[in-house]
Structures are given as C-alpha cells and as structure tokens.
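Tip: read the tokens left to right.
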C-alpha cells in the first residue's frame, strides 16, 4: 500500500493546489478542475498498480462495457419513471437547460470524463482494493462510499446520490474484478445525469 499511499498523497496535493489557485488564476473553474483531474488521472494511470495491456484484459473490457450499458439502461428507465411519476427534477438539476457554448463541453468533459476516471482510480483502484483485503465487500464498500459521498458535498451538497452511486461502482468492481468496470459505470452514469435536462424534461 506504500505506492498507493504515495499516489493518494500526490493526488491530494494536486487537488489542494487547484482549489487554492481558483481565486487567483484567471481561468474558468471547470477548466482548472478539468486540468487538475486530467493530470491526476494520467498520474494514477501510469503509476498505479494495474495494467490494462494485453489480450487477457480484452474480455474484462468487453464485460465492463456491457455492464456499463446495462446499468445505464436501468438508470435511464429509473430517471424516466421518477419524472413521469413525480414530475420533479433529479438531483437538483434544472428542468430545462440551454447548453452554454463553449462552457458546456468543458463542463461535460470535467464532470463526466476527467473526474470519474481520476476518482475511480483512487476510490476503487486504490482505497477499495486496500480495504477489501481486510474487510468484507459490504464493509469496504460502505467505508469507501462514505468518503466518496463526503468528497461530493462541496459540489451541490449532494450526499445520498454519490453514496449509492459509489455502492454501484463497488459492485461493478466486485463483479468484474477490474477498475475498468467502475470507471465506465461512473462515466456513463455522470453522462446520463448531466445530459438528462436536455432529453428528459421535454
């Protein structure tokens, strides 16, 4: 876990630097966050204790993609049911949205690609795998999901949605035994959530 601890410390330093520099750097906050999360993801990808190379990982990739598509279909059906039964926005998102250009593409990249990849490599790739060696799957998932949800509190005050989402990501890891599964689940899930104001409330 020494390597993992060093990587987590490096990610925390990069994250802190991004937050501290926000008031003084004349840059869109989502661009700054996107740059930080992309740098974190690259650092973790190249130095983390995993490998996505070789033909032995192709079946895992295919299974992870199938799992992500299936979960996405279930998630979209749940969103539709929520809207048609309760007629309420989901996760505090607006009922209708007009994409700001070019800020929308930057927002979507940061929230639905860079952040999910970096977060999954830390939370499922490092922390969950470490805890899973010492705890049951349920205990490890609960502990990791509590930390994951707490991390998201500054972003809109959400706790329950990230917590239950994290449980799904942990289940994806348990099912496929590769961090590719939670990465894809997280990416697809965020895309559905943040694009829902454009296709759901019409």
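Filled-in amino acids:
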């Amino acid at each position: 876990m020494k390597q993992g601890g060093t990587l987590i410390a490096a990610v925390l330093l990069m994250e802190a630097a991004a937050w501290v520099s926000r008031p003084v750097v004349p840059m869109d906050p989502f661009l700054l966050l996107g740059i930080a999360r992309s740098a974190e993801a690259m650092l973790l990808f190249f130095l983390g204790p995993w490998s996505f190379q070789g033909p032995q990982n192709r079946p895992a990739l295919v299974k992870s993609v199938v799992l992500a598509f299936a979960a996405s279909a279930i998630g979209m059906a749940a969103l539709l049911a929520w809207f048609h039964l309760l007629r309420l926005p989901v996760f505090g998102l607006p009922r209708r949205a007009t994409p700001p250009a070019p800020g929308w593409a930057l927002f979507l990249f940061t929230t639905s690609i860079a952040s999910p990849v970096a977060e999954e490599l830390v939370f499922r790739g490092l922390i969950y795998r470490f805890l899973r060696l010492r705890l049951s799957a349920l205990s490890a998932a609960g502990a990791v999901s509590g930390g994951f949800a707490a991390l998201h509190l500054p972003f809109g005050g959400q706790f329950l949605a990230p917590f239950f989402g994290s449980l799904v990501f942990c289940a994806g890891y348990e099912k496929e035994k590769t961090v590719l599964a939670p990465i894809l689940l997280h990416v697809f899930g965020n895309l559905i959530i943040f694009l829902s104001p454009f296709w759901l409330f019409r």
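The CA atoms of residues 33 and 198 lie 24 Å apart. Helices lie at 2-21, 29-47, 58-86, 103-132, 137-152, 160-176, 180-199.
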